[in-house]
């Protein structure tokens, strides 16, 4: 998959550029088909992006936000992506479709979440770990080989089992937006943009891919500040 790489100065510029991009795409999708379907991963950078989105024109009442992945932890737990997502959205009237990680039967819950997914996502946000993982698709986890389900459970990773979208679900993305910051991401970012399928992130397929990276992670000259990608 071809990745369009855009390097900006710092994490704040990544958040601002991403917010402008998301707002513009949301407006276009709502105008075209009445809804914007947006799947969001965890991590610090997306929450900064949502804070910046508060200052953009977003048709929130027509936005459906899905989760890319989630830790199996109680509601309100600070380790939950949903906790930070709700805080970041504030009073924005978006529909949030949360992963049911507190259900007693997690396999059935994953299957049910898969059935709730749209036939396509207008946008999927992904991050990149120092080990090359994305979503909760981590090296050597059996979930990497799941091809018959849209949502699956991982082995425990960094203290938590996870529920995650699988590669077939991520392939429903019309557009992927990668947000990548920090010097520890330089090597996996280089491998990602080179199309290295030996890292989990390198196996993601989508119709289009925009990679926003800060200068610490990026492989090219940094732009001065946020812009609105076309």
From TrEMBL:
<comment type="similarity">
    <text>Belongs to the glucosamine/galactosamine-6-phosphate isomerase family. 6-phosphogluconolactonase subfamily.</text>
</comment>
<dbReference type="InterPro" id="IPR005900">
    <property type="entry name" value="6-phosphogluconolactonase_DevB"/>
</dbReference>
<comment type="function">
    <text>Hydrolysis of 6-phosphogluconolactone to 6-phosphogluconate.</text>
</comment>
<dbReference type="InterPro" id="IPR037171">
    <property type="entry name" value="NagB/RpiA_transferase-like"/>
</dbReference>
<dbReference type="GO" id="GO:0017057">
    <property type="term" value="F:6-phosphogluconolactonase activity"/>
</dbReference>
<keyword id="KW-0378">Hydrolase</keyword>
<feature type="domain" description="Glucosamine/galactosamine-6-phosphate isomerase">
    <location>
        <begin position="10"/>
        <end position="206"/>
    </location>
</feature>
<dbReference type="GO" id="GO:0005975">
    <property type="term" value="P:carbohydrate metabolic process"/>
</dbReference>
<dbReference type="GO" id="GO:0006098">
    <property type="term" value="P:pentose-phosphate shunt"/>
</dbReference>
<dbReference type="InterPro" id="IPR039104">
    <property type="entry name" value="6PGL"/>
</dbReference>
<protein>
    <recommendedName>
        <fullName>6-phosphogluconolactonase</fullName>
        <ecNumber>3.1.1.31</ecNumber>
    </recommendedName>
</protein>
<comment type="pathway">
    <text>Carbohydrate degradation; pentose phosphate pathway; D-ribulose 5-phosphate from D-glucose 6-phosphate (oxidative stage): step 2/3.</text>
</comment>
<dbReference type="Pfam" id="PF01182">
    <property type="entry name" value="Glucosamine_iso"/>
</dbReference>
<dbReference type="InterPro" id="IPR006148">
    <property type="entry name" value="Glc/Gal-6P_isomerase"/>
</dbReference>
